Each structure stands twice: as structure tokens, then as C-alpha cells.
Amino acid sequence: MQGKFLVIEGLEGAGKSTAMAECETQLAARNIPFIKVREPGGTPLAEQLRLLVKAEHSESIAPETELLLMYAARAQLLHNVVRPALAEGKWVLSDRHDWSSQAYQGGGRGLSEKTLGALAEIVLKDLKPDLILYLDIDPAQGLARARGRGELDRIEQEALSFFERTRAQYQKLAAAADNAVTIDAGAELAVVTGSIRQALTEFLTRSC
Q1: What proportions of the chain, in percent to the nearest 5, are helix, strand and coil?
Q2: Angle 41-33-73 (CA atoms, 0-180°, nearest 5)?
Q3: Would you give the DSSP letter of residue 106?
Q4: How many domains are there within the chain?
Q5: Nearest-angstrom CA–CA distance, 148 and 24
Q6: Which domain holds residue 190?
Q7: What is the rounded distance in angstroms from the CA atom of residue 6 to the CA atom of residue 32?
Q8: Which of 135, 130, 118 is closest to 170 using CA atoms?
Q9: What angle do CA 91, 97, 27 make, to 5 degrees?
């Protein structure tokens, strides 16, 4: 039996780690075999690409370069980890996936849908998440949370307007998707956790 592909998406400070932990708890409670991954990253090579993307450099990184690095890391993860796990019947719980590229490099950087679509077709092929939990948060609130965790990386240091464009693209994607649930990540933690649990429970009821 093919496994299921669950993805958590959202801006910095949206609470993706909390959502991942709640999903882990729900899957474990039902004895569902699963693995968890993150993007960019998840394999030795993909983790090196993650460092390249997030680090400061002595030269400016072109939006196209950033995008290609993201998709290179994604290709490695899907080929070496995600697709084999799904084929074995395991569920895959992913911290970010393709929506991040569409939101950050598409909405935030302004790269065209044509460019993003061409890369997605090459890398994703027929793969589509079974469920996307989109954690929606005001960028200013999310960035304040991120600053509270420590030093910001290169992308997290972008101007607020960048994250506003990124959020707008996320919202557009969520509104058009039939496999996504939007969670109000700006609410109190107990409320957010409850919303995640409800969405996942409904999905599990349909799937198991």
C-alpha cells in the first residue's frame, strides 16, 4: 500500500515545529509507520545545499540561483528518501515542500509561474501531497517570534514587504487547493494545536 505525503507550510514563526510534533503524536497513536523530513535538506547533499541557501555570501545570490538550489535539494530528497518511503507504505511528514518555492521565490522574489512550473514538472513529476497544513500568520508577528529564537538567516533578514508578498502567494495557493487546510497560526497555542489536531483527525478518518 502506498504511503501518504503530509506537508506543513508557512512563514517563519508560524509554528511549523509545533505542527510537526502534533502530527507525529497523532500518527504514532495510530501506529502508522512514518518518517519526517525537512526542506531544503533531508539528505547529506541536500543539507549542504540548505547551508548554501541560508548562509550570507560575499556576492548577491540571484533569485534564479536560489530557486535552482531549492529544487536541486528537493530532487535529492524526493529521489533518495520520500519516494522510496512512500513506495514502502510509510507516511512522510515534511517540514516544507514545493509551496515554499512558489511562495518565497515566486511571490517573494517575483519569479514567473512559467519558470516555477517548468522546474516543478521536472522534479515533482506526478507527486502531490495528500494533505497540506498551511499555517497562516501575519509576517510581522511571525518574524517577531523568529527573532525570539535567535539570529536570523539570510532569507529571514529580508524586508517585511518580501514576506507580505510571500504570504499573499501562500494564501492564493491555499485558496485554490483541494488538498490543503488553512490554520490560523496567529491564535493562541492551544487553539492552533486544536485546529491542527482536528484537521489531521479528519484526514486520518478518511484515509485509514
Answers
A1: 60, 15, 30
A2: 15
A3: I
A4: 1
A5: 25
A6: 5-207
A7: 13
A8: 135
A9: 25
Question: d(Cα 159, Cα 138) in Å, to the nearest integer?
Answer: 14
Sequence letter at residue 22 = E
What pLDDT, in 10s, does the model give residues 121-157? 999 999 999 999 999 999 999 999 988 887 788 999 8
What is the Cα–Cα distance from 47 to 168, expressed in whole angstroms?
A: 28
- CATH number of the domain that residue 47 is part of: 3.40.50.300
pTM of the model: 0.95
Q: Evaluate whether 134 touches 9 at the Cβ level (below 8 Å).
A: yes
> The C-alpha cell of 68 is what?
535552482
Annotated binding site: 10-17
Residue 144, amino acid = A
DSSP-derived 3-state class of residue 199:
helix
Q: How many CB atoms lie within 10 A of CB 28?
A: 11
Q: How confident is the model at residue 176 (pLDDT cuts 50, 70, 90)?
A: very high
Position 208, amino acid: C
Binding residues for ATP: 10-17
**Residues contacting 41, CB < 8 A, separation 6+:** 47, 49, 50, 73, 77
Cα separations (Å) of 114 from 26, 119, 166, 200? 38, 9, 17, 32
Residue owning grid cell 548562509? 55
Q: Which of 43, 23, 32 is nearest to 132 (CA)?
A: 23
DSSP H helical ranges for 78-159: 83-87, 98-100, 113-124, 139-149
